[in-house]
UniProtKB/TrEMBL annotation:
Lineage: Eukaryota, Metazoa, Chordata, Craniata, Vertebrata
Lipid bilayer topology: Peripheral membrane protein
Membrane-spanning parts: 105-129
InterPro entries reported for this sequence: Caveolin, Caveolin_CS
Protein name: Caveolin
Principal place of residence: membrane
Family membership noted in the UniProt record: Belongs to the caveolin family.
Organism: Bos indicus x Bos taurus (Hybrid cattle)
Role summary: May act as a scaffolding protein within caveolar membranes. Interacts directly with G-protein alpha subunits and can functionally regulate their activity.
SUBUNIT field: Homooligomer. Interacts with GLIPR2. Interacts with NOSTRIN. Interacts with SNAP25 and STX1A. Interacts (via the N-terminus) with DPP4; the interaction is direct. Interacts with CTNNB1, CDH1 and JUP. Interacts with PACSIN2; this interaction induces membrane tubulation. Interacts with SLC7A9. Interacts with BMX and BTK. Interacts with TGFBR1. Interacts with CAVIN3 (via leucine-zipper domain) in a cholesterol-sensitive manner. Interacts with CAVIN1. Interacts with EHD2 in a cholesterol-dependent manner.
Molecular function GO labels: molecular adaptor activity; protein kinase binding; transmembrane transporter binding
Compartments, as annotated in UniProt: Cell membrane; Golgi apparatus membrane; Membrane, Caveola; Membrane raft
BP-aspect Gene Ontology terms: caveola assembly; cell differentiation; negative regulation of endothelial cell proliferation; regulation of cytosolic calcium ion concentration
Cell membrane keyword on record: yes
Keywords from the UniProt entry: Cell membrane, Golgi apparatus, Isopeptide bond, Lipoprotein, Membrane, Palmitate, Transmembrane, Transmembrane helix, Ubl conjugation
Length: 211
């Protein structure tokens, strides 16, 4: 069909447009490939490392970034000789700088190897063991949750609804009773002169409370 000709209903002669190179489902894949080639794709093994800023994510700014002033300080009124202070500053700074370089030269590559193997094992376990186990557990727990939900709705819900209706019919009435003895104790002393007066008052109070 490329470069062919056809005639329309009015007799006009037309040429079939030539399709650009590429997949029939992706007619512009050639242009897309060129755009992808123009983009800079960085690989973890070939990317350039910054030799100036070696802590771009600021992991150890507050941990091991220690100067002489952060460790040794002399307050006002307690100063050593100026020469001793300068020599101490130089000794601390130079020792810390070169001894770190010596340790990193001796143990930097072995430690990098050890930590590389360690994090490779962690990545392997996370990708090939942890995530599949979690997905498998989620699938299995969904089946168990459905069975448990059916069990609860079938057996537990009617039982607890019946128990709730039974206890909902319980009515509690409270009635306050008046004790008769305090009335006798609070009476004045002259009412206790004889037994008849006490009996009369007792009967009067009982009749008053019960009526």
């Amino acid at each position: 069909m490329s470069g062919g000709k056809y005639v329309d209903s009015e007799g006009h002669l037309y040429t079939v447009p030539i399709r650009e190179q590429g997949n029939i489902y992706k007619p512009n894949n050639k242009a897309m490939a060129e755009e992808m080639n123009e983009k800079q794709v960085y690989d973890a093994h070939t990317k350039e490392i910054d030799l100036v800023n070696r802590d771009p994510k600021h992991l150890n700014d507050d941990v091991v970034k220690i100067d002489f002033e952060d460790v040794i300080a002399e307050p006002e009124g307690t100063h050593s000789f100026d020469g001793i202070w300068k020599a101490s500053f130089t000794t601390f700074t130079v020792t810390k700088y070169w001894f770190y370089r010596l340790l990193s030269a001796l143990f930097g590559i072995p430690m990098a190897l050890i930590w590389g193997i360690y994090f490779a094992i962690l990545s392997f376990l996370h990708i090939w063991a942890v995530v599949p186990c979690i997905k498998s557990f989620l699938i299995e727990i969904q089946c168990i949750s459905r069975v448990y939900s059916i069990y609860v709705h079938t057996f537990c819900d009617p039982l607890f609804e019946a128990i709730g209706k039974i206890f909902s019919n319980i009515r509690i009435n409270t009635q306050k009773e008046i004790d008769q003895k305090p009335f006798l104790i609070l009476l004045p002393a002259y009412h206790y002169k004889n037994f008849q007066t006490i009996e009369y008052l007792k009967n009067f109070i009982v009749n008053t409370c019960t009526s």
